[in-house]
Design a protein that fits this description.
The chain has 206 residues and is an alpha+beta fold. It folds into 2 domains: 3-87; 98-168, no CATH class. Helices cover 42% and strands 29% of the residues. The chain has 7 helices and 6 strands, in the order E-E-E-H-E-E-H-H-H-H-H-H-E. The protein has helices spanning 48-53, 91-94, 100-107, 110-123, 132-145, 150-163, 171-197; strands at residues 4-14, 21-30, 36-46, 54-66, 69-80, 200-201. The strands form 2 sheets. Strands 1-2-3 form a 3-stranded antiparallel β-sheet. Strands 4-5-6 form a 3-stranded antiparallel β-sheet. Strand 4 (54-66) and strand 5 (69-80) form a beta hairpin. Helix 4 runs antiparallel to helix 6 (150-163). The longest helix has 27 residues, at 171-197. Bound molecules: zinc ion (ZN). Residues 15-17, 19-20, 47, 49-50 line the site of zinc ion.
Length: 206
């Protein structure tokens, strides 16, 4: 399988001070299956002043095309040297529970799970539980384990409560990570807006 270059266009626009240019190439490739890929390469700031002050950086946005198909549009900027408009959020704040066992402890406190156990014992049938949390847990448990018999669910929850404090994910950890993610994302948004206000948007033609 090989990608053939079907188009390679040199594009150009003015630099931030207006006395020079910024150049890039836009290449379109196609493979044996008629799939396309596009890429920008060969960026050059052809202005001594702007080259000293700026680097080239980009922002990419996803947009909905149609029928569940998404596209990406990339905007290019001259950004003050040493700064970036890329969102910088540590991977540890993007961590989330990955399976049902982790989700149970991440989404419910130990006290909530204990209340659900008491509710289930009192109700005796999965169709008669009275707490919203009980109904939700039964629905998710059935989805994961193909059963919602309380004789299976209750021992599972009792084991979970007994091990709660040693589990990787707890409600407290989930809440803390979501809050920290939210705070960092908000401050990154402000930082990027500030860098953008001192950047120069490039509008390549060609
Ligand atoms: Zn310039």
């Amino acid at each position: 399988m090989s990608w053939d270059v079907i188009r390679d266009v040199k594009q150009e626009t003015s630099c931030a001070c207006g006395r020079g240019h910024v150049i890039k190439h836009h290449v379109t490739r196609m493979d044996d299956w008629n799939r396309y890929e596009e890429e920008d390469y060969g960026f050059t700031i052809e202005c001594p002043d702007c080259r000293k002050k700026y680097d080239i950086d980009s922002l990419s946005y996803s947009y909905y095309k149609d029928r569940g198909d998404y596209g990406t549009v990339t905007r290019w900027y001259l950004v003050p040297k040493g700064e970036s408009i890329k969102e910088n959020i540590p991977m540890c704040l993007r961590e989330r529970p990955i399976n049902y066992d982790e989700m149970v402890t991440a989404f419910y406190t130990k006290e909530q799970l204990q209340a659900v156990i008491d509710d289930m014992k009192k109700s005796r049938y999965s169709t008669r539980v009275s707490l919203d949390e009980s109904r939700q847990i039964i629905q998710d448990f059935k989805h994961r384990y193909r059963t919602c018999k309380l004789s299976v669910v209750i021992p599972y929850l009792e084991k979970t409560v007994a091990e709660y404090d040693t589990r990787e994910w707890t409600y407290e950890k989930m809440t803390r990570i979501k809050q920290e993610y939210h705070d960092v994302a908000a401050s990154e948004k402000k930082r990027i807006e500030d860098v953008l206000s001192r950047s120069y948007k490039l509008s390549f033609i060609g």
